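just leaving the lab so this will be short. what follows is a protein written twice so to speak, once as letters and once as structure tokens for the fold. can you read through it and tell me how you think this chain folds. anything you notice is useful, everything is just below:
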Amino acid sequence: MKSFNRYMIIMLALMMSVMMLLAGCGGGSSDTEAQEEETKVEETQSGESGSASAGDYDVMQGFEKKANDDGSIEYLYFNDFMLVMPGNEKWAFEPSEDGRSVTFYLNSAKQEGYGGKLVTITAYDIDDNSYEAIPHYSVAGVGGKTNKRFIADYPTDVQWNHEDAQQEADYRDLADYLGKIGEGAVNSPLATADSNAEPVE
């Protein structure tokens, strides 16, 4: 029994020594691991997912365009939002240089120098409400992956040729359609993680 107790005491002393040794020289490695883990989290937040700041966001990341069977409807999948558009060549879109937004316009009006802007979809950080200064906007929704709030910014001036009745009709049709963009709106052509996930037809 005495030898068993002596064995237990020796084992306990050995374990205490090993623990003290690890605490003394091994603490740095666990700190390093924690720092590496923090760095990984930061990289995930500010890099791939683009949730750290609007500057890290790219509207065209993972972009895809699909159409229904007869080509009458196009589904445009941008970075964390989808926009449904009529399948024709009357409109086009252009991403901004900083990658934070995409502008849709009427082709004929833009080509003739009338602007043709229909709407600009811009990604804002969740805590950024500077969009409230925009004269005419609609909150489109929040992206689930990028943690951005998407804002639809509409022009307040005339963007077509007044003397071209067809161009005006085309512009008004598209403007009315895109004017339905809104967070939670039933007929919104734009869908995000917090809105209707099903394509609007």
Residues 1-5, 16-53, 196-201 have pLDDT under 50 and may be disordered. The chain is about 30% helix and 25% strand. The CA atoms of residues 73 and 190 lie 13 Å apart.
